[in-house]
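Render this sequence as a predicted structure.
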Amino acid sequence: MPRLLVVHHTPSPTLQVVLEAVREGVALVDDVDLSVRPALSAGAADVLAADGVLLGTPANIGYMSGALKHFFDTIYYPCLDATPGLPYGVYVHGNDDTAGALSSIRRITGALSWRMVAAPLSLTGALGPSDLEACRELAATVAVSL
């Protein structure tokens, strides 16, 4: 059974709601094993055991969270040659802008040669029902790609 790894930094109630919507989206797909790890505790072994990754972070001062950056710092060299083509998706929530966070994630995943399988999800401000449905759809799309 394919394994989807969700690596997230969820410091706010809003991002917790997003993470739950992601879980719901993956649950819509049959025969996918879901592994959810906070960015500060996820490591290379988690990535190497996964068939795909979904990344989640707040946008902090125009960048991804320090926790997600730490994740990339710890997995970069162990995964560089072992994971080219790894399917991934990403969601980012910010108060008003997520462009810098998404750009930095694209640079790192590009250097790892990972393959984006769903459009990045940029969420800003208060979330509505359509935002949560977009989270479910993103998670299901990534899960189906495995």
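Summary. Helices lie at 13-27, 44-48, 66-80, 99-111, 129-144. Strands lie at 3-8, 33-38, 52-60, 63-64, 87-94, 115-116, 121-124.
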